[in-house]
Amino acid sequence: MPTTGALSPTDLSVALYDRYESITEVKHYYGLLAIYGLCRIAELAEDGGALLDRCRAILARFPDQIDHPPYNFPSYRIGGIPRAYMLYRGHMTDEMTKRYVQHYAEEMMLAVRDRDGLMSMPHCPKREQVWIDVAMAVTPYLLFAGLALNEPRYIDESAKQAFEHYRVFRNPHNGLLHQCRGFVGPGRLSTDHWGRGNGWGHIALTELVQHLPADSPHLPEAQRMFVELSDALLPHQSERGLWRQEVPDTHAWEESSATGLILYGYGVGMRLGLLDPDRYGPAFDRGLDGLIDHGIGEDFQTHLCCPGCLCPGEGPRKGTPIAYLEDKQPVDDDGHSFAPIILALGEKLRADR
Length: 353
Fold this sequence. Notes:
Blueprint: H1 9-23, H2 28-44, H3 48-60, H4 80-88, H5 95-109, E1 130-131, H6 133-149, H7 152-169, E2 180-181, H8 195-211, H9 219-233, E3 243-244, E4 254-255, H10 256-271, H11 277-294, H12 321-326, H13 335-352
């Protein structure tokens, strides 16, 4: 078997997805994000037609052939982000897909919100629990649905969710994001700067800057926030090229899913001319090398990934950096790990074309 570093971005991405599919059913939001990454690879691959066919076959299993758990966002049932993306890009234009995407976009428009308009924890009676992960779950889906179905309401809401999550969770002292509000106590922010949480905020802005129409009134603000967050994250890359579980803590353990999400954004930003390649190019190259060397092992298992994480800890430790570091330890083959690496590899493939 070739070493991971010897494989093309396409072959490595497919091998990672195959690994993921071999160990569990690919669903949940992080599984759908991996399917989205595979769809993006398929659009660029030399034999992309066959890979696009595979993506269509994967998504055709939703919703009826998937064993669905309870979801915070029902759009996951029909394939969520990748289903909407494939409709937007013209790869799945059947009437069923159109109806699915529109139905769940309308459902999302009615989701419960907190006082700032952020979509909130569905089962929180006071609607006060909000978390940055939602920016990733909502913004790309509504953006692609709006573009596919020519529905400006969806696009407006996609931008609003990304912008308001960024404003609420941004620490003005260092530009980094906290994960949540209302889980520690009413109106209180967690005190973390969790790696994947910053990646979730970054990917929402990444999708806006690369897919909003050039004449969109939301584009200038999306670009400003995207560059601002990219700048805030850059100084915290480790010597091995990775970002950490607690981003500004140089003693924190390195984390692969945050790294992949940030690198994906950096690749998009350089491609669009929003990020200076002289400044961000070395970080992108070092980060991708670090992901391949330390985040992927034999048989394409993944390493250094934070498992599911929402305001860990109890009592005074809840939502603090020490809880994110001590209560969550890196694991192998976690479902959250595959999509970020595939997305970063997709931008490497684009850069090499």
